[in-house]
Design goal:
The complex is a heterotrimer of chains A (148), B (255) and C (108). By secondary structure, chain A is α+β, with helices and mostly antiparallel strands. Chain A contains two helices and nine strands; from the N terminus they run ααβββββββββ. In chain A, strands 1, 3, 5, 6, 8 and 9 form a six-stranded mixed β-sheet that branches. Chain B has a single domain, classed as Orthogonal Bundle (Cytochrome Bc1 Complex, Chain D, domain 2). Chain B contains ten helices and seven strands. Classes of the chains: A alpha+beta (148), B mainly alpha (255), C mainly beta (108). Chains in contact: A-B, A-C, B-C. Strand 6 of chain A pairs antiparallel with strand 5 of chain C, so a sheet runs across the interface.
Chain lengths: 148, 255, 108
């Protein structure tokens, strides 16, 4: 693990240990999976037309622009009910859930998130037929040179 | 006599620094910190809705319009102080002191509105200064370094060229001699002031140039001064001059 | 003092899908940061962001500490009738902030 990520990892571990907000180790792929199950239940996540866009390099983990798009006709019969965002390297993998519906017209949401470390951000969309489809993107989170 | 002593001390300090006469970055080679950011961060600065600094500009506008004490700022300044920000820091004729925009706002508050001054790090003052700075967005600094301003300018320049902190680094060494090179994952910028007052992602908030300079000092493990310190005001004058014809970007966004 | 910025088109034609943006000033204190003397800063975040169009909730975001400070959201909604868009933020203590914009919908 590169020095920058290890330092972040250690900082977060220490913060968690001392903070009393222990929710298990730093989130990882397994924890993101667990969070997805917590939010959506035990349905599997299939590949689907879910596009997540985050910067390839996030120069500050406190503010990372994120866009998630699901290609869906957004009709009464076929639409996106909700989209969950999960970051594998965050202490709490579940970042947010957006509730949509046919009235949305387009299943496109933008926001800004925090990333605890370089890794995958996954979006899981629940469709009107109950299926879950997912996509992801990856960002390298850099630390400032002059660490204050 | 005091003036001469101070001038000699400043010149002596300058000579004591790197050994030879320190060379300023050529002003026509000034490059904004924007050039050293990712495309996404640049886009955020240019986003007229989502730039987080606009939350403070909005607040500043509301404060500007609001009747406080004897009058609102707007009641005198219907032109919203367009083009004013770039003239600061400046020497106040009546007192001979070098004052910043924040000082000017506080002077207005006490003299025109009958209100107490705001603390240098107060959010209200930050919001007002961001509103004023935003009215000069796109304009180059137009500070004077002659006459009564010369001493302050030399003090500011001396600060820039003085080694400090446990890392024993002067601003000059990174930001004049090594800009464009990598420092871990970052590319070192020229340390231009144009984004400030602005939004810094590391703060998750907006802040003044003095706050940014505090972080610079802390970065080389030097004891930061208070916002509004004389040294920071003098440094601000030097930086405004050093920026050449770079336009004010406030509210800027930086990492 | 929590500033709010809203972006809603002044008007739209019926059935047009419009983009709506909202941003609020809020620290979204994650609960993982420490202050100058090493004390943990308690979590204090917004938990919900909702947009009501008339009496229908057209957008709802449930938030955790992974949402950045000064939260920004952009979403889409289909223009139906002229009505008020009401935006509401609710923090973990139940405190709320609201703002609204009227959307004029024409048959254009």
């Amino acid at each position: 693990m590169p020095a920058i990520e290890r330092r972040r990892f250690l900082q977060l571990i220490t913060a968690l240990a001392c903070a009393g907000l222990w929710r298990g180790a730093i989130a990882s792929e397994e924890d993101a999976e667990r969070a997805i199950v917590e939010v959506f239940g035990m349905r599997g996540v299939e590949d689907g037309p879910v596009t997540v866009t985050i910067p390839p390099i996030s120069e500050n983990g406190y503010t990372v622009p994120l866009k998630v798009e699901v290609d869906s006709p957004m009709t009464e019969q076929d639409h996106v009910r909700s989209i969950g965002i999960f970051a594998e390297e965050n202490p709490i993998a579940h970042i947010a859930t957006f509730e949509l519906g046919p009235h949305a017209g387009k299943a496109v949401v933008e926001t800004r998130i925090r990333l605890g470390g370089s890794g995958r951000v996954r979006a899981v969309a629940e469709l009107s037929d109950g299926r879950l489809i997912g996509g992801y993107d990856f960002s390298i989170v850099t630390l400032a040179a002059c660490v204050v | 006599m005091r003036l001469i002593t101070a001038l000699l001390a400043t010149m002596a300090m300058q000579l004591a620094l790197a050994g030879d006469a320190p060379a300023d970055l050529p002003r026509d080679a000034a490059i904004s910190g924007l050039a050293f950011l990712t495309e996404e961060t640049k886009a955020l600065q240019h986003d007229d809705f989502a730039n987080p600094g606009l939350l403070w500009v909005d607040r500043g506008r509301a404060l500007f319009n609001q009747k406080a004490g004897k009058a609102s700022c707007r009641s005198c300044h219907a032109d919203e102080l367009a083009g004013v920000f770039v003239r600061y820091p400046a020497v106040e004729a009546s007192s001979g002191q070098l004052i910043t925009v924040n000082d000017r706002i506080n002077r207005c508050r006490s003299r025109q509105q009958g209100l107490p001054p705001l603390a240098p790090a107060a959010d209200e003052l930050l919001a007002l200064s961001m509103f004023v700075a935003a009215q000069s967005r796109g304009e180059p600094y137009a500070v004077s370094i002659d006459g009564n301003a010369r001493l302050h300018f030399e003090r500011g320049r001396a600060y820039f060229f003085t080694r400090r902190g446990q890392l024993n680094l002067a601003c000059h060494q990174c930001h004049d001699q090594n800009w464009g090179k990598k420092l871990r994952g970052d590319t070192i910028s020229q340390g231009q002031p144009t984004a400030f007052p602005g939004y810094r992602m590391e703060w998750q908030s907006a802040g003044s140039l003095h706050r940014r300079i505090q972080d610079c000092d802390a970065g080389v493990r030097a004891q930061p001064l208070q916002q509004g310190a004389d040294e920071y005001k003098a440094l601000e004058l030097y930086l405004a001059w050093r920026a050449g014809s770079l336009p004010v970007e406030s509210p800027g966004v930086r990492r | 003092m929590n500033g709010i910025r809203l972006s809603v088109p002044a008007s739209a034609t019926r059935d047009e899908v419009i983009q709506v943006k909202a941003m609020i000033q809020h620290d979204m204190e994650s609960g993982y940061r420490r202050d100058q003397v090493g004390q943990r800063i308690p979590r204090n975040i917004l938990k919900h962001f909702e947009c009501f169009y008339g009496d229908q909730r057209v957008f709802h975001a449930e938030l955790n500490p992974g949402v950045a400070a000064n939260p920004f959201f952009s979403f889409f909604t289909r223009a139906t009738d002229s009505a008020e868009l009401l935006f509401r933020w609710t923090d973990q203590h139940g405190q709320t902030w609201t703002a609204s914009r009227f959307l004029e919908v024409t048959d254009g």
